[in-house]
Amino acid sequence: MDTRYLVNESGERVGVLLGIEEYERLIEELEELADARVAEEARRELASGEDEVIPFDQAVREIREGKVLHD
Q: What is the band of 26 on the pLDDT scale with cuts at 50, 70, 90?
């Protein structure tokens, strides 16, 4: 990784300059991590009984009827 730092007048690092490809790779990894956390939370809620699985057709019907699926 070719990382360059931005420094202030005192020589303290205050920022990082990354190439666009490295930046995009990091963003993609962060998005994947966020997705994994959401999936783990959903599994935890299902296991604890806080949430339930409903059939896809039922979910579509409830959305069309304007029902709230989640609080």
A: very high
Joined together, the tokens standing for residue 16 give 């990082």
**pTM metric for this prediction:** 0.58
> Exposure string (b/e) for 27-44, b if CB count within 10 Å is 16 or more?
eeeeeeeeeeeeeeeeee
Mean of pLDDT values over 50-55: 86
User: Which candidate, 9, 10, 30, 27, places its Cα nearest to that of 18?
Assistant: 27
Nearest 5 degrees, angle CA 57-CA 38-CA 59? 10
